[in-house]
Amino acid sequence: MNREYxxxxxxxxxxxxxxxxxxxxxxxxxxTVNGAMPLLITRNTICELEQIxxxxxxxxxxxxxxxxxxILFFSKPDWQQPIHVDDQSQYGMYTSLNIPIKNxxxxxMNWYLGEYEQSVVKLDSGITYKKLTMADDxxxxxxxxxxxxxxxxxxxxxxxxYSKEYRVMLVVRYVENIPLLEN
Length: 183
Description:
The chain contains five helices and 13 strands. Helix 2 packs antiparallel against helix 4. It has helices at 3-6, 15-25, 27-31, 43-61, 88-91; strands spanning 7-9, 37-40, 67-75, 79-80, 84-86, 95-102, 107-112, 116-122, 128-134, 139-144, 149-152, 157-161, 167-174. The protein has 183 residues and is of the alpha+beta class. Strand 8 (116-122) and strand 9 (128-134) form a beta hairpin. The protein has a single domain (3-174), classed as Jelly Rolls (Sandwich).
């Protein structure tokens, strides 16, 4: 399996505009974050993001397409997220567009292959995911997500933040999966 099975770097011309928009819209939440947590983006904010990303979205899909939902994910300093897969039954999507917002240069996203046991976890925000216990937690592939990437979320994965600062990542899911290689 090669890199594009797990992730693909994407050119987002409006990346700086997205960063500025998210930082100003969620300034209070970003400044007062305490712990690792996801924050669901409101429908009104998603509509504004769709407008900012309209041309980039067309380049990715070759057509106009709506955002299904979006999450602002905060990773604590020096923290490793539990290995998990995103709950596809909740939204049906297994890819996301990850757009770095703040302090993302010193973190990796790791993917794992192999046998595992899973348990469903529901967060206070309403987001569910499948927490995994891997028989072997050897990393199959890892990538510094320091610029916009499409990432596969139906394969066991986790994020490690090596930074001394909170990492803030915008996760965008469209109503259709973003194409990646299948094998």
